[in-house]
Amino acid sequence: MENKTTKFIFKTLILFPIGFGIWTFIGGIDNFHWFFPTLMGFGLAFGTIFWNLFDYEKFDGMDINDFLESRHKLMIENCDENWNRIINLIEKSIIKLKILEKSNSTLKIEIPRKLFDSILTVEKTDNGIALKIEKKGVLKFLPDNAENYSTLRTIGKEIKTTANNAYSK
Hints:
Number of domains: 2
CATH class of the largest domain: Alpha Beta
Keywords: Membrane, Transmembrane, Transmembrane helix
CATH topology of the largest domain: TATA-Binding Protein
Transmembrane segments: 12-29, 35-54
Strand content: 15-25%
């Protein structure tokens, strides 16, 4: 996607069939009139994306690849100190997190959300530590009110803040 407007329109068109289908089944297939379900399908899709737009616009410097998406990735320096900070953040979380997989180089966690839970995957690689977050389930393509982006950004800031405090002592 080249810009936010194009991505907004694209996401609206992706959601249109869902809204169209809902209103077609509500009105019944026997007395099908195309105008009202089409109008309501676009209205539902536009409303959903527009509602999410404000949450994504709160973040300055967001890459266009992260805009109106629920999948995000963050790379940090690969060192034992950063890995231990990530483990500490997860263990001391206020929210009850479900650990799905844990090894020396991989950590997979389920984060509870209002509607659709998220999966956070942390992997150690030669290039760094990769943090990936995405929605769990079938509707991964729907925007998530920037919840996943906010979570990943918070983890990144916390790791950098802790690192800065450790170096300043």
